[in-house]
Design goal:
By secondary structure, the protein is mainly beta. The protein has 4 domains: 1-93, no CATH class; 121-171, SLA1 homology domain 1 (SH3 type barrels, Roll); 176-328, no CATH class; 358-435, Immunoglobulin-like (Sandwich), CATH 2.60.40.1180. The protein contains 6 helices and 20 strands. The two termini are 53 Å apart.
């Protein structure tokens, strides 16, 4: 069946409304990467043949139609031709209750509608008089306006109505410094099965990322309005071109003297991982990709933002209409994950490593790190799990084991950054000794 061999059971006759007891037992012994498929075949129906083993591509067994997100999750690691996810019968002879149908439609939140402060309009003065003008700038305790004939008029701020002062203040925010923050913690792989201790452990990278955002007002001018800061975190496929919507979090606040006109917040940890399904297969999964941070005022208008990639901000509305963990392309359109290939399931191709692939072992205050692919001269290799934030300590020394090569290193919030000196490192891989 598909790219694999399957055990075929007996034919089962099903009748509508007649219960049928069913028990499925799945078992494996060696640990590590494991998967199984339960498929169905309707007697007499013809199915497309898989091009690898020429077996039928049967539909998976299901009791519900799959939503887009669940289908993506299955397709991510399902080799084309192994099984069909979206076709085939649904084994359910009842109509599920529709909870959504009984709930009222969500109402869109309406932001307060306030007139813009930088356009030609009527302004009310404290003495009840009005003038048609456009606000230009504050100079000291005066507001400068421009009349329809181009004349500049200075008016003491105290003579402008309270409503119009609030309008001008809201429409002319100060300058801000916005930053996106991320901390990562590498999770050790699960323990080796006692039944298979001699097996080669397939490469596996697991990281817990905690994302956040912070803001600092760059000027001392008072801005007493409520702000909303929201971050959006995204991942990239390790092998493929699709992006992944990872996380979204927001907070509301007012910058003031009490908080030194700064604010920051963090979300909950988000786990991402990549692995190889075979020792010689390339890594598949997700890695951190980028971010967008937006700053919104009381009217719901975005007054500032910061983005790692402009296309993420340009298509933010489309991307954030998708559910978290959805895959999308650089146009912000939903796509399916890049499919695994049949060769990924075989031990025939050579494993390709990058300078960011490491293996670890530790004894006391010493950590030995094996780099699976040496970086070129002047090229960086970053061990994220040894960052100053995540390690909770300072690295005392870093030296190359078994060679005269030297290496430049620094520990910062990115991780332990390694840069070989002229002459490079010995061999295709290398080992370094780290003293804590």
């Amino acid at each position: 069946m598909g790219n694999n061999l399957a055990t075929v059971g007996d034919w089962i006759e099903l009748k509508a409304g007649v219960p049928k007891n069913m028990e499925v037992v799945a078992s494996e012994i060696t640990g590590g990467v494991y998967c199984s498929l339960l498929c169905v075949e309707v007697k007499g129906k013809k199915y497309p043949k898989n091009p690898v083993l020429l077996g039928p591509t049967l539909p998976i067994f299901k009791t519900e139609e799959l939503d887009h997100s669940l289908a993506d999750l299955i397709h991510r690691d399902l080799i084309p031709g192994d099984a069909s996810v979206t076709n085939g019968p649904v084994f359910r002879d009842y109509t599920p209750k529709s909870v959504a149908a009984s709930l009222p439609e969500p109402q869109a939140e309406e932001s307060p509608q306030m007139p813009a402060g930088n356009e030609m309009r009527l302004w009310e003065r404290g003495d009840g008089k009005a003038m048609e003008a456009k606000f230009v700038v504050f100079i000291g305790d005066k507001a400068v306006f421009e009349t329809p004939n181009g004349k500049k008029v200075k008016v003491p701020v105290s003579e402008i109505s309270a409503e119009d002062r609030a309008c001008i203040s809201l429409s002319n925010p100060p300058e801000f410094e916005i930053d996106f923050t991320k901390n990562s913690r590498q999770i050790p792989p699960p323990p080796v099965s006692p039944f298979n201790e001699s097996a080669i452990q397939r490469p596996l990278r697991i990281f817990d990322y905690t994302f956040g955002a912070r803001i600092r007002q760059k000027t001392a001018r008072e801005y007493p309005h409520r702000l909303k800061m929201e971050y959006f975190a995204f991942g990239e496929e390790v092998e493929g071109n699709a992006w992944v919507y990872l996380d979204r979090c927001s907070a509301e606040f007012t910058l003031s003297d009490e908080n030194k006109r700064t604010f920051d917040f963090k979300g909950k940890p988000v786990r991402i991982q990549s692995q190889a399904t075979r020792d010689s297969a390339p890594m598949r999964g997700t890695k951190y990709g980028g971010f967008v941070v937006t700053l919104t005022d009381e009217r719901g208008a975005v007054i500032d933002y910061k983005a790692s990639h402009e296309f993420l901000y340009e298509h933010l509305k489309k991307i954030t209409s998708l559910p978290v963990n959805a895959y999308f392309n650089r146009d912000g359109e939903r796509v399916v994950p890049t499919r695994a290939q049949a060769g990924h399931m075989r031990e025939k191709q050579k494993m390709t490593y990058t300078p960011q692939d490491f293996r670890f072992t530790a004894k006391g205050n010493t950590v030995y790190v094996i780099g699976m692919q040496k970086p070129g001269s002047g090229e960086e290799a970053v061990i994220e799990s040894l960052s100053s934030d995540q390690l909770g300590g300072t690295i005392q020394s870093v030296e190359v084991v078994g060679g005269a090569a030297d290496i430049v290193w620094t520990q910062n919030d990115r991780g332990l950054v390694l840069t070989p000196k002229l002459g490079g490192l010995p061999g295709p891989c290398y080992c370094i000794k780290i003293t804590m």
